[in-house]
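for the record, two folds in this file. i put them one after another cuz i was lazy. first one right below, seq on top, structure tokens after. the second one comes after a little note so u can tell where it starts
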Amino acid sequence: MKKTLGLILTLVLVLTLAACGGKNNASESPSPADGNGTATKETSAKPVTVKLGIFKNVTHAAGYIALEKEFFQKQLGDHVTIEVQAFDNGSDFSTAIATGQIDLGYVGPGPSTNQFLKSSNFRVISGADNGGAVLVAGKDSGVTTVKDLVGKTIAIPTKGSTNEISLRLLLEQEGVKITTDNSGAQIVARAPSDTLVALRQNEVHATLIPEPWGTQIEEEGIGKVIVPWDQIPPNNGDYPLVILVASDKFISEHRDLAVAAVKANLEAIDFINANPDESYELINKRLSELSGKGLDIALIKAALSHMKLTSDVSEAAIEEMAKVSIEAGYIKDVTVDTLDLSKFLDLTILEDAKSGK
């Protein structure tokens, strides 16, 4: 009996020690898989700060929703601190990402392509919005068609912008030359808010401008849309107006976070399409934070109806716009024949995000 009791006690002791040893070994093994069979994130992930750039414009709606609904935070992880930097134009944004002031963000293909061909240190990783700009003529301009722009002055938000590229393509297809005298159309750069004043005073006669400015100009009786968003070249409005780009350094050091950011962008686009009314309010909230001033919800609703939110990116459209920039003199030391944008797009990150990698 005593022998039996002794064996039992010995067996219990051995099993207890084995269990303790198993716990110690488990703490050094890879993180356990979750219910889907994938490894869970390490709870002690190294803190990272991600600097994200975005415009003060409704066309950047996907980014606004990804921030307001915390899709970025969810996808990037709790160990990531997101710092948002607001920009007024693509030139400033493109300089910032090329010089390491921001890691990723939303911008138009016009100025970002121009900068890429100088620095070659950032990439397109996803689309966000196709189209969303309109051509508006002032009410007292005498302009009702594109051909009427001969001898007139047309405003664009900034020189070299995606909007200027679209305007140049539109004038070309209608046979209107761009000049510095009355023999053709003249192009000037004006901030959208200044353009409204200039149209009222007939200092400029038309503008190719992103929404919601076009709708606002019409509603205030300042002018009328003469070319709607879905007739603006290239591709009748179905061209990249807002893309998501990331620096080479960020992609190299944090490719997983680049994929996560694209996932957040995809989630935001789906949310806007499924929940438009809630999205209008959230977009306005973020716009107010970035610019200090919100918009009438009806304007935001109208603007989104003149856009195609999509992660798709047309390389052909970006190349066509780049050629216009070259011919306009915005891209130096590159000819139409030597243009190579093969490294400007890294859509493998988008593919990984869609496949859940």
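(here's the note) second protein begins now
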Amino acid sequence: MNDDMLDSPAHYERNGVECWQITRHMTYMLGNMCKYVFRHRLKGNPYVDLQKALRYARQLSAVDMGLLPMTDNTLVLVQHACLRVRDVSPTDAERRFWEMVLPVRTPDSHRPRVSDANQEAYLVALDGIVGEERP
């Protein structure tokens, strides 16, 4: 296996952003859901990856909707990464998904949260993406 497959596989890079730059600040379930959406067009079987994303979305709880504590500088970097991925997303449904996971800081908490921390909203967005990729 070459170093590129270990260090920077092509299916984890979009528009100069590597998937880990976004997901490392997320809880496990939220991060995995995003990982599968991120790579679904890049790894060979979009429909299967989207089904995996849906599996994680169905298991999300209110606890999973949060992000890990981060500095304001890190928050800006993650926001920028999400927007770069959104900007190269080819469909409206996928662009909406990336806007929903965009991290925002709330004045009453040291932990940022995703813009639309709502399991039902994720399921609807993912269903839209799946509908566009259905074989």
